[in-house]
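As a warm-up, study this chain.
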Amino acid sequence: MTASLPTVATPTTAMLSVRLLEASISGSRILRGVSFDVPPRSVFCLMGRNGVGKTSTLRTIVGLLRAQRGSVQLDGDNILSLSPEQRAHRGIGYVPQGREIFPFLTVEENLRLGPVARGTKLNGQLERIFTLFPILKEFLPRKGGMLSGGQQQQLAIGRALLTEPKLLILDEPTEGIQPNIIDQIGEAIQMLRREGRMSILLVEQYLDFCKELADNFAILDRGAVVAHGPVVALTDEVVREHLTV
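Now compare it with the structure written out below.
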């Protein structure tokens, strides 16, 4: 069974609707008509081999890479003309590759920057983050740069969640992370899905992680979607054709 190419749902049914997105870097076209929908209250996995445009797609969605054509709608509103800061205010939380925490600020200071990004207040939300990632409560006074890679990833996700996003975007959340923390991040994503407050879009190379957590997926190749569907359509045949190196 081969997953079908995108004849996706109408934008009004999606938390995120990406249509015919095109973008270039240094004159080289990176995205070639990318289209997919992330339904409300779901986990969506964007997959593909290295260098096919996954991170560029995320950066275009959050406004860090300029789109040349196409549209990006968040909860029915076109956000393509908005700045990255305005998109964050509209409800996008973004955890990039490399996490980008502030290494010389404490864990608590890093977390408190989350609401600042959206112009809101904490209102007791830290306890929710500590439920997801208990280790952060123990390390509140510790400098972010002193944490392990996995703990920094938890901190980055916690900080993004404190912006109260409609859409949480995670770029390679398991990259370089020890297995026990991969499990903790997976459990946190499952808990967030059960809460039903947001949609989650993640770029991920770890196939089992996607199969366990995602409701739907899309696979990119050379800047275009080549397969998509519910995660049950992510068969061995599709994996061999589009993901095996």
